[in-house]
Write a structure and sequence with these properties.
glycosidase; single chain; 2 domains; DNA-binding; mainly alpha; Endonuclease Iii, domain 2; 8-oxoguanine DNA glycosylase/AP lyase; HhH_base_excis_C; globular; Endonuclease III, domain 1; two-stranded antiparallel ribbon; EC 4.2.99.18; 63% helix; lyase
Length: 227
DNA sequence: TTCAGGAGGCTTT
DNA sequence: AAAGCCCCCTGAA
């Protein structure tokens, strides 16, 4: 009860009154949330370089400020270093991103997978009819991409239906609403899929799509919706 | 000036 | 499974 107010006063309301008011807050933000998701919806239909850039964004975000990651990707695209820059040049644009050395390696590793000749080709691996299998493929083949970030990527290009992006904010909310008892210290594949399944059931019971519940939790914690 | 915190994941033990 | 490592910038105290 002694929780601080955030930008929207949502935290307080949600804690004191449980899931009922989560639905109320949802109604307030529903339009905004749907609008935001709509912006992601068709990204997977844009060109390969754009889709690849989204993947790279998600390789940068762990433990970092998403805004700075966005700036870094924007600059790497503009300069085209993202598509053909060397290690040192790429690294020079990650000044504000956490763990820049590791992440430079992830970016170049991902590029090596998807660059054929002079072209980036990533869209052909996106099986729209089985996005969960695509996620498995990404986790297995793209170094630096775990379940959380693979889900984040698919959501950001409009293929994240029914997927959870289990970051600390979401996990805190899931605990708050007693969907999970505790926040696990390390999330294995097994626990990730279990928690994802529980979140799906919870969202079903509220009649709120998982992707929308994700953004709702996210905005409750941070006060805004980025990506 | 210190110090927590930011949409984790990989490697080693 | 658990601990160790990556390693940057910002804003509050």
């Amino acid at each position: 009860m002694a929780e601080r107010y955030n930008y929207n006063n949502c935290k307080e309301i949600c804690i004191s009154n449980g899931a009922k008011d989560l639905i109320k807050v949802y109604k307030d933000k529903k339009h905004h949330i749907k609008q935001r998701l709509k912006e992601f919806e068709n990204i997977h239909k844009s060109d390969d370089e754009n889709v690849f850039s989204e993947l790279c964004f998600c390789l940068l975000t762990p433990q970092s400020k998403a805004v700075y990651c966005g700036q870094a990707i924007k600059e790497l695209k503009r300069s085209r270093l993202l598509f053909n820059g060397g290690k040192r040049a790429v690294r020079s644009k990650l000044q504000k991103v956490r763990f820049p050395n590791n992440k430079t390696g992830y970016l170049i590793g991902a590029r090596n997978i998807f660059k054929h000749g002079k072209r980036i080709e990533i869209k052909k691996i996106l099986d729209i009819n089985d996005t969960f299998r695509v996620r498995e493929w990404l986790v297995k083949n793209v170094k630096g991409l775990g379940y959380k970030e693979a889900s984040h990527f698919l959501r950001n290009i409009g293929l994240g239906r029914n997927m959870s992006i289990l970051d600390v904010h979401i996990l805190k909310n899931l605990k708050r609403y007693k969907v999970i008892k505790e926040i696990p210290r390390a999330i294995t594949k097994k626990t990730y899929l279990e928690i994802e399944s529980k979140m799906r059931k919870f969202s079903d019971s509220l009649n709120i799509p998982v992707e929308e519940l994700d953004l709702l939790f996210w905005s409750n914690q941070t006060g805004f919706i980025f990506k």
